[in-house]
Structure formats: C-alpha cells, structure tokens
Amino acid sequence: MSVRYVGKDIPRNDGFDKVTGRGVFTFDVHLPRMLHGKILRSPYAHAKVLSIDTSAAEALPGVRAVCTFENTTAKLWNGAAPMFITPLPHKPVLDQTIFTGEPKYIGDEVAGVAADTEEIAAQAVKLIRVEWQQLPAVYDPLEAVKPDAPQVQPRFANPEYNNICGGPVILTFGGDPDEAFKHCDEVVEYRVKLPRVKQAQMETHGAVASYCPDGRLDVISTTQAPYPTKMILAEALDLPVSKVTVRNPPYVGGGFGVRIGLSGKAEILAAALSMKCGRPVKLIYTREEDFTCSDSRHGGYLECRLGARKDGAFVALDTRAWLNTGAYATFGTDLVGVCGACGTAGAYVIPNFRYTGWPVYTNQMTAGAMRGFGSPQGNAVVEPAIELMAQRLGMDSIELRKKNSTREDTRNWFPFPPGSCGTNECLDRAAAAIQWNEKHGRAAQQTGPVRRGVGISAGTHVSNAAPFCVDYNTVLLRIERDGTLFVNSAIPEIGPGSTTACLQVASDLIGVPFQNAVMKFGDTDAAAFDIGSHATRTLYTVSYVMADAAKELRRDIFTWVGRHLDLDPGSLELDDGIITSGGKPVSTLAEMASAAHLEGKQFMASSCKVPPNCLPFYAQAAEVEVDLETGMVKVLKVAAAHDVGRAVNPRLCKGQIEGGVLQGVGYAVREEMTYVEGKGFYNKGFHSYMLPTADDRPEIESILVENPDPSGVFGIIGIGECGVNPTLAAIGNAVEDATGVRFHEFPLTPGRVLAGLKAAGKV
Amino acid sequence: MAQLHTTINGEPITAEVDPALSLAEFLREKMYLTGTKIGCGKGECGACTVILDGKAVTSCIIPVLRAEGACVETIEGLERGGRLHPLQEEFVNKGAVQCGFCTPGMIMSSKALLDANPAPSKAEIREALGGNVCRCTGYVNIEQAVEAAADRMRRGEG
Amino acid sequence: MQYVSASSSGEAVELLTRAGGKGVIMAGGTDLMVEFKEGKICPECFIDVTKAADMAGISADGERLVIGGAATLTQIARSPLVKRYFPSLAQGCGCVGSLQIRNSATLAGNVVSAQPAGDGAMALAPLDPVFTVCSAGGEAELTMGEMYAGFAKSRVDHSRQLVKRISIPLPQKGEAAAFYRLELRKSLSLPMLNCAAMVHCEGKTVTWARIAMAPVGVGPVRAAAAEAYLKGRELTEAVMARTGELALENANPRSNPLRGSREYRLEALPVIIRRTLEACRAQLS
C-alpha cells in the first residue's frame, strides 16, 4: 500500500458545484406546496405572556398555521448536541421548549406562523396580540451570581447557587495550588473580560420541514450535526427516531459551532408549523435573527494565578471563569469545562492545577459553541499571565514557554496521552516568521504617535470530544461494479473540505484511485450514527473508523479474489486499483468487482468505533501597530504555526488555519456583541458587526508543522478549530509590547485602548 | 405588475414582474438562478453580487426594473458547456472555496474587476472584494485565486 | 407599487407632480431599497433618475466642476477631473459602503439621505458646493448648510424635489483640501468620526478655512470657532493642534454602542482635525 493522495493539494470535490452556483443550500430548497414561516419573538428580556390572541393572524388570507406555546408541546429539551452525547453519570440540562409563555431574552420564541408567502407570514405575526407583563432581568454574569439577582431559570439552575447552569465545573490535577503558591518564587495574576462574539457564518439558520400526517418528518436544514438533530426532533416532537430524517441539501453555508444540534431553532420551529398544517414549511432566519437569536461565543470574566520557580518551571495554575451562558443551557456546562481543560490544562506541565468554571444564566441570547469552544477564553487568560511571569523572571517568554511545554511523556489533567508534541517547534517557527528577536521588546526605542510590537501565544485543543462526550462514527465502504469507491458517512460538509480529505485518506487506505471516489454525506439516511462536524474531529475520527473498515474491505476483496483467481489471499496487494500477487500484477479491482458482481457479490465493509484522542499544539505570533493618539490598533501580521501531524491536503489545511486566524483577529480588536439594555444586542447585521473584510486584514502566514501523531491515521491531528484559539492572546501581548500597557478587556477597540493608555499615563 | 425586458447571461428575457421585487429575488424566485445568494438583504455582505452592465452590484437592493434594457451576468453564466471560467477554476485550485455561500458573489465581484482591469494591483483586488464578506477563508486564498486567474486571462486563456 | 424610469430631470419632476406626493425619487436606491423592504417607506411610485440624461456625468466648465445628480460614487471616485481638482472628494466618495454600493449610489443621494457622517457628503462639505434642486416650482440653488433640516433629515423632500446637479467652484491657487476617516473597518461601515477641510493660504498665512466634522451634530458640522482661529495664522504644529481643540466648541457628538462613545469622540476629534490640516499643509508646500 503506498501513499498516493494523502499529502497532496487535491482540488476539493465540491468545487465545481460551489463555483458554478449549482450547489444547493437550504436557502435554495423549494418543495411542492411549501409554506413560509415567521416567528413572533419577545421584545422583552424577561416577561410573562398574560394573554395571546392569534385570531386576527389566523383570519388573514394565506395563513395556514399559527403555533404558540399554548398549542404546541411543552416538552423540555436541549437544542444542542449534549442532549444525546452527554455520557453517564452526567445529565444534560433540558431547559428549552418550542415556544414559551415566559420569554427569557429579547428574541425568545413565543409564536410562529406559516403562510403562503414570507410577506403574509410576517404580516400575520404582527397581527398576533400579546399582553405582556415585564419581569426583572439580569444581564451580567457577575451580577447574576449575586444572591439577590433575578432568577433566570429557577427550575433548572443548580439550587445551591444563583443562576448557575449545570455547574460549577471544577477540574484539578496534581497537588493543591493554594499550598503550592506558598512555595513559588514568583506568582503573577491576570484577569480579563471577554466579549461575546458571533459566528456570523454566511448562510443564516434555515430549515425546510415536511411532516407527513402518516407520521414521518423529513427535514432539510443548515445543521452541522444531522444525527443529534434527528434525535432531538424525535424526542421533542414525540416521533419514532426511525421516522425522522435530517439532511443537508447537501451544502451548509458555514457553521463554526453555531449549529451543533438544531440550527438556531429553525428545524423544530419549522417542524412544529409543518405538523400543524401537514405541508412543508420553510423557515429562514433573517440576518438580524441570526445575529440576535442564536448562540454566540461565551463572553465573561476570567482570572488566573500562575506560580513558578526562579528557574522558570511552572509550579501552580489556578483559574476561575464566570461565563455568560445566556437564557438557555445549550452547551453552557460543556463549554465551560473545555475552557478549563483545553484552554488552561493542556499546553504546559503544571504540577498543581485547578480550574473552576461557572456557567451563568442571564437574560440574554444564549451562548453556545463557537470555533474553539472555550479554548480561546482559557488561552486569553493564561497566555498573558505567562508573559507577565516572563517579565517578572527576566526571561524571554518563548524560552519560558518552551521550558514548560507539554512533552510526549507529560501526564496532565487529560485522561489520554498528549500524542506528538510540536509546541516548541511551533513557537520557534512562529517567532522566526514574525522576526521576534529583531522586533520584541523595542517599546523604549520608539517615538512618535505610532508604535509597533510583537506578541506570541501557544496552546492546545483536542482532536475530538471522546471520552468527554459520546463521540463515535460509522462508515460504510463499498466498491462499485467498475472498481470505484463509494463511502457512506453522515458527516456534514460545512466548508472545511472534510469530504475531500476523507476520500484522500480512504483511497490510500484501501488502495483505489481517488479520481472517481465518492462520498455520500450530510444525511441521516446516508449512514448510521455520526455526531456531526464539531470538536475538530471530522477528519481525525472518520479516518480512524475508515482505517478499520478499510482493513475489513481489503480482506473481503482479497478473500474473494484469491478464491476466484486461485491465489493465496495473503499474497495479494491492492494499490491504486491494481491487484498484485507477490509483486506481480494479476488483475484490476475494476475487473474483479465486475466479476464479483456477476456472481452476486459486492465488496463492502463497515465499521463503528469510538476514536482515540490527541492534543493539537500550536503557536501564533502577531505584529501590531498602535496609534497612541486615536487608540487604533492595526494588526499587521499573524504567523500561525500548527502541528497538524500530517497535512492530508495542505491547501485545505492552511485554509482552516487562515480562516481561524482572521476570526481571532476580529475577536481581538474589533468584534463584539454590544448589549443595550431595553433594546437587546446592537449588532443586528454585518454593517454593525465589525468582522474583518478583505480590505482590512493582516498578512497571515500559515505554517504547517508535521510531527506525525501515534494515534492518528497517517499521523493526522485535528486542526479545524485551532486557528482561532491563540490569536487574541498573541495580539494582546503584542499590544503590550508596543505600548507597555496590559489590557484587561477585549476587543481592543480604539475607545478602550485610548482610555487604557491615558489611565496608564502613556498619553 | 410590469414588463421587464432584459438580458441574463446573454439570453434575452421578457418577464412579468412585481416592481417591488429586488433583482436578487427576481433571479432566484422567478428565473430559478439560485446561484445568487442572499446573506443579509441589505447590501452589507456581497453574497448577492451580480454584474449589471459591467458593474458589480448587490442585487438584493437593486430594484428589478433597473435591469430593464440592461445586461445581467450571474454566476450561472460563467461556465460554458462544462468549461469553467479561469476565475472558477482558480477558486477551486487555490482553496478559495470553503462553505461556498459567499463564492458566487465573490467570483462575480472578481469578474467585474478583471473585465475592466486585467492587471489589478493587490489594493485594487482588495477594494473590489471589500464588500464581499467571507467568514471561512481569511481571504488569503481568495486573493491568490484572483491573481492567478488574472495571470491566466492576460495570457489569453478563458 | 409602480416603478418608472425618467429620461430627464424635467420628466422626473413631472412624474413627481403626477404622483401628488406619493412618488419618491430614486437614484442609486441603496438606502431607499432597504427602507422600502423594511416597510419604513411605502411610496406608490419610485421614480428612477439613473437614466436621466441631464443628471449624468461629471464635467468642468472653467469655473466649476459639475457633478450630475445621478453620477455614482464610483464614477466620482475614479473621475480624472475629480481626482485632479478635488482628490479629497474622490477619496471620500471612495469610502462609502463597498464598491458594489458605490457602483449604484450617488453623491446627491449621500447628501439627501442626510446621515450625519456620509463620507461623500463630508468630503464635499468644505468645497463650497451648490446644489441645484428641481421641483414643480422651478430650480433653486442651495448651499451645503441649507441641505440638512435635522438629524438624518434632508431639506430636500424626495417626494417633491430632486437634486439635478452639484456644482463646485474649481480650486484656486493657494487652496488645498483633505478628508480623514477614523474607521473600524474600511468597507461596509460608517466612520467613527470623519472630517474634511479646505484652506486657502497666501504665502504661509491662512486667509480662510472651512472645516467640516461628523458625526457631531446635524449633517457635516462646521467648526466655526476653529475656522475663525485659523484665519490669519500659519499652519504650524501648535496652531493645527489648537485648531483641533477649538473644533470641540462646535461638536456635540452622541455615544454610539459601536462607533465610539461621546467621550472617545471628543478625545479623537482634535487629533483627526489636526491630521486633516497636516494633509492640507503637505499639499500646499
């Protein structure tokens, strides 16, 4: 077996569809008799519906269904994947219903209408008359945990605390940090306030739900987790799981975590309306609904203490986080855990480790999964502390990181070995690319209003969610009559090119040509369980399961071919579709598959397995320019070095890094969901949400470091989320390098920076 | 309702239209040209970019009747008999495509640029794409794809 | 709803009259279409002036630069005439929205939409433009200051009037103009602050200056105290810095959740005014 396709920049196989406009997205789906849905959302952050009158809406010509909290099930669920991937003995928090009579944030769903056109549905929503009683609300996590704060979810919050959702999450490893700090030569502290930011994927949430009165529900949607969505819908709507189908059509306009489970609530809202009238209902979120009524990244407060010996060896790390999970749980508890694990526990050797995370309910839009899933938040508090420690010890911060970085034999909080550890190489290569030695620590030599500085940050994540979540895959491999490969898997393709890279891996694993290999994906009817595209997992875990199935498939082929050609199956080899025996070509897979078919035999194999896991390590360095007079921070360059184990498709792999980095740049300097009390989030569209545009981006240099991981097929390590994780901290460190001021609140908008520079007496 | 006479991707079209429609709605809902996406409906993301008489416009805020007597180019018009436009090929080759939702608008903005300016500078490429939001790629490969396509087109390809 | 295309400004005025106040002039339509889709305006008729022959194009007649009411921001930003006489206007017009928006939107629309910090309108403000406004009653000429009736409110009633052209006196010897935009992002965003200035010097001494700033009030706000101070002085570092400080006397910015608090805007305004004047000085030397 030779490696022909892994490692090559093969153009993605959905490219033709996507550059010609042929590719179908949920937004493009149109079905016979299809209606359009619109939702009535709460204008209040916390209120009780005293009465609701839908008669005028129902009387409007063209209206086919009106659903409210009064005529739909009040069964409880959690719209995110944890509802069905939380391993025992933990229990997911089930705190959502389809509609509610007690809305808990501005935008909460109270009623919905399906009508012949979107315009009629929108008009009908306006005709629904509601009598509201406003209730007290709380918006800030530190306010919400106070004993006298209004209760956001009294039925579901942890009764021992105020407004704590499923937590607190406490992680410990090694000795007691409190005791250890007493014996440290140096202890530094850092605290930071982080914003909520939004995934802002290009295709808004959407679903077309078709309920057939004989009991089947077929949903086409923008979910990035078709199987969990199928399970949630079946449970919430009291349908047999077998009768619910969820599929992507097959393309999804981005995800970045916002739809690991229901996409917003599009599927269940459309399904409720469809079940009411027995016709397909299409519900597409407006951009404003997407921005203000679906999960964001968690913002909040973090603080940490880091202790070290004089020689730089880390002794203890203690971190506390209060993250704003909003009105409903979704991923709140899980994410706060990952913030501690990936964000604070994995990258360095820390003999005395503790993390305490508080997922806090507030009367704001829910926060949930977004690329990095807590890692960026943890990184944002630990990496500045390391920088402060380096200053205190008079060491170069890169040397300090390298001295403490996780090694292959490190045991830390994670219940599995870290795998291959490329942190130090990543640090060196990122530093070289940013010219660290020439540029770092030059604040004192600079004059004039514009200053430059460089900063660095390292970190880790995971390559899937096992064993913390129920995370497994199923694939079916089959050889068609002409020897071509067909792979069935329910994974979605939300953009990274997973379906191309998986086929590169499969072709090499089996020994067939890539050219005509095909994957059926994004559909619960395509294959058995798949958790979805999340946790940096798809390529790593699907490859793992495919490796098992490929072994079985080759055995199936060799057994039959051996018998058919009267050869020892043990002597057979398959490479790029050519079958050899003892090194001599004896046939082709095409010929054998065809012959087998005529005897009633198709070569196939399937596998269903829980993957191992490994930690992906990385370092990013940033160069910034700060205008001391206006507070404007401009990011000039980010050099991102990631240990990817083995790049299956280097171009696609770099694309993941570059996209993540730019999201991280936005997070660090521009992006922020700003809450205006009484009105909700100010950021209702791209015009009021400052994600980077093509003419406002830094140079991005993506560097692939390839230390093959022992657990990964062909040595691969996860990459998907990692690009975004260390960027904010690297930029914050660079701004300090430029200005001498350490900031404690992000993003570094001009107003915040100028105020900080003034407070520090720099201007 | 009003009559619209326009040319879409080289084909003359006559249609009865509601003047309240945007050009994007008309293309998608009446012409079934769903390659043109709508990401915001307010001209703030560029997903709906089409070329109207040689200029890139956000078709979600262009009144349909502005296409009267005009030439409209959409993403569907670029491929001819299975042959891709150099921009389309380079978007695939250079990894400028990820989720694909911004891609049609991105390619149409790029085509309008290259049609008028065969040798754009980096700054001109960035200006042309500044109104097309992409959240997947970091724009790095998109810029490279446009440069590569421009090179090829200058050499007489496409 | 009807949509008609006018072939001249005269025809557009006739169509407005016929619509009896229920028609609305549409040039680029980039703002109007959004308002229309959101149900904020519901005219019975849109009167498209983009094909009105006497409202097209950009020309210079020896005394003034004339910009048609239907000239797009892209046409202005790329016009050799505009770049030659008023590079700051080309720059400001090139900052609005995105290229796609500028390919449709007009400078006249940027003024009539009356957003306080429209970049095109701001760059235009210190150039002493005259707006030729047509209505059933005939043509009238309005100055920049007369175009704004209130916050986001134009004196031009688009259901009865239209801007046929904008005329700008050609620059004379000793004049220079500059535009500055303090921005969170280049494209698809309004500025945090913007500022435009035009100064005339004899030798090194400023004989007059016009400084406009936004968003610090209704439309482009003139920094009257700063302008008065500058007259008769040389553009030294100290004078330009002091001019920036004095601009605060006429500035009353609001806080915006995204584009800067009142406090920040008051801090940054003197800086960008100083930088704008520095740009003027650089052109003069």
From TrEMBL, chain A:
Keywords: Molybdenum, Oxidoreductase
Sample GO molecular function, one term: oxidoreductase activity
Membrane spanning residue stretches: none
Gene3D superfamilies assigned: Aldehyde oxidase/xanthine dehydrogenase, a/b hammerhead, Aldehyde oxidase/xanthine dehydrogenase, molybdopterin binding domain
UniProt keyword Chloroplast present: no
InterPro entries: Ald_Oxase/Xan_DH_a/b (IPR000674), Ald_Oxase/Xan_DH_a/b_sf (IPR036856), Ald_Oxase/xanthine_DH-like (IPR016208), AldOxase/xan_DH_MoCoBD1 (IPR008274), AldOxase/xan_DH_MoCoBD2 (IPR046867), AldOxase/xan_DH_Mopterin-bd_sf (IPR037165)
Pfam families per UniProt: Ald_Xan_dh_C (PF01315), MoCoBD_1 (PF02738), MoCoBD_2 (PF20256)
PANTHER family given in the database record: ALDEHYDE OXIDASE 1-RELATED, XANTHINE DEHYDROGENASE
Annotated protein name in UniProt: Molybdopterin-dependent oxidoreductase
From TrEMBL, chain B:
InterPro entries: 2Fe-2S-bd, 2Fe-2S-bd_dom_sf, 2Fe-2S_ferredoxin-like_sf, 2Fe-2S_ferredoxin-type, 2Fe2S_fd_BS, Beta-grasp_dom_sf, Diverse_Oxidoreductases
GO molecular function, one term: 2 iron, 2 sulfur cluster binding
Keyword entries, A-Z: 2Fe-2S, Iron, Iron-sulfur, Metal-binding, Oxidoreductase
SUPFAM superfamilies in the cross-refs: 2Fe-2S ferredoxin-like, CO dehydrogenase ISP C-domain like
Highest taxon of source: Bacteria
Species classification: Bacteria, Bacillati, Bacillota, Clostridia, Eubacteriales
This protein's name: (2Fe-2S)-binding protein
Keyword flag Secreted: no
Annotated ranges, domain 2Fe-2S ferredoxin-type: 2-78
Ranges that cross the membrane: none
TrEMBL record, chain C:
Gene3D superfamilies the record matches: 3.30.465.10, CO dehydrogenase flavoprotein, C-terminal domain, Uridine Diphospho-n-acetylenolpyruvylglucosamine Reductase, domain 2
SMART domains, A to Z: CO_deh_flav_C
Keyword GTP-binding among record annotations: no
Alphabetized UniProt keyword annotations: FAD, Flavoprotein, Oxidoreductase
Signal peptide range: none
Superkingdom as given in the UniProt entry: Bacteria
Family matches, as InterPro entries: CO_DH_flav_C, CO_DH_flav_C_dom_sf, Diverse_Substr_Oxidored, FAD-bd_PCMH, FAD-bd_PCMH-like_sf, FAD-bd_PCMH_sub1, FAD-bd_PCMH_sub2, Mopterin_DH_FAD-bd
Name the record gives this protein: FAD binding domain-containing protein
Originating species: Lawsonibacter hominis
